[in-house]
């Protein structure tokens, strides 16, 4: 993808702030005909999860993405956040795994997002076949960008693309949320929190005085 078509990380962060919510996509039956994954059967981790255990994808509940759908997710993640001179791409830091876990979780918000994402991915592959004769993962970067550009900003999307644009807004939020909570993503935005220090000097004396907490 050349510089003229690349979606910048700055744009991605701005979209996270601008696209805070999304409505549910309508469920056109023909778009879901090739999706066979069952709804999540697990009941979740309950109110007392083991926070020190390291879980692998699929340990807590069955995953959703089939191999073809996962290929679509991988390339769409990298359309939204490609690698650049400073940071790796979204797929390189495991964002597709995060999305698969998210839409597979048996909770109301995740079940809602599961429908939005699966229907959107089905539309994306169908639209790519219609325009370019192949699924989204198999076409060129420029062709993927052409489709993504048409649904990248819901207020500017044509009437027939409003629902795909709603999907893209939610998927983009998941991608950016997943990426910017990884160590690579935090370095990319120069986030300095959660860094250990040799000592802690406490709050500034001026703040202590303002709060009336002097010893």
How is the main sheet built? none
Which series of helices and strands comes N to C? HHHHHHHH
Number of strands: 0
Report the radius of gyration as a whole number of Å.
Answer: 20 Å
Low-confidence stretches: 1-6, 16-31
Report mean pLDDT, rounded to a whole number.
Answer: 84
Total of DSSP H or I helical runs spanning 4+ residues:
8
Shape: globular
Query: What structural category arises from helix and sheet content?
Result: mainly alpha
Query: What is the share of helical residues?
Result: 40-55%
Terminal CA distance reads 60 Å
Short description:
The protein is mostly helical and 215 residues long. Helix content is 47%, strand content 0%.
Question: Secondary-structure blueprint of this entry?
Answer:
Layout (H helix, E strand, L loop, with lengths): L8 H10 L48 H14 L14 H10 L3 H25 L8 H11 L10 H18 L3 H6 L16 H7 L4
Kindly describe this structure.
There is one protein chain. The longest helix is centred in the middle third of the chain and has 25 residues, at 108-132. Helix 1 packs across helix 6 (162-179). This protein has one domain. The chain starts with 8 loop residues before the first helix and ends with a helix. With 215 residues, the protein is an all-alpha fold. The chain has helices at residues 9-18, 67-80, 95-104, 108-132, 141-151, 162-179, 183-188, 205-211. The protein has eight helices and no strands. The radius of gyration is 20 Å and the shape is globular. The model is unreliable at 1-6 and 16-31 (pLDDT under 50). The relative contact order is 0.17.
């Amino acid at each position: 993808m050349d510089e003229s078509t690349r979606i910048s990380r700055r744009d991605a962060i701005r979209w996270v702030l601008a696209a805070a919510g999304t409505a549910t996509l309508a469920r056109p039956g023909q778009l879901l005909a090739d999706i066979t994954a069952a709804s999540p059967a697990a009941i979740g981790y309950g109110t007392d999860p083991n926070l020190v255990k390291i879980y692998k994808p699929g340990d807590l509940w069955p995953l959703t993405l089939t191999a073809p759908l996962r290929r679509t997710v991988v390339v769409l993640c990298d359309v939204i956040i490609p690698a650049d001179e400073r940071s790796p791409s979204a797929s390189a830091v495991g964002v597709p795994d995060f999305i698969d876990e998210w839409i597979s979780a048996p909770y109301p918000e995740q079940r809602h997002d599961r429908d939005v994402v699966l229907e959107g991915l089905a539309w994306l592959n169908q639209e790519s076949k219609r325009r370019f004769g192949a699924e989204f993962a198999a076409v060129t970067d420029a062709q993927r960008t052409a489709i993504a550009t048409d649904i990248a900003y819901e207020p500017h999307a044509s009437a027939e693309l409003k629902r795909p644009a709603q999907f893209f807004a939610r998927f983009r939020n998941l991608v950016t949320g997943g990426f910017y909570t990884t160590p690579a993503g935090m370095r990319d935005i120069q986030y300095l929190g959660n860094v250990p220090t040799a000592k802690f000097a406490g709050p500034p004396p001026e703040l202590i005085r303002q709060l009336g907490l002097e010893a």
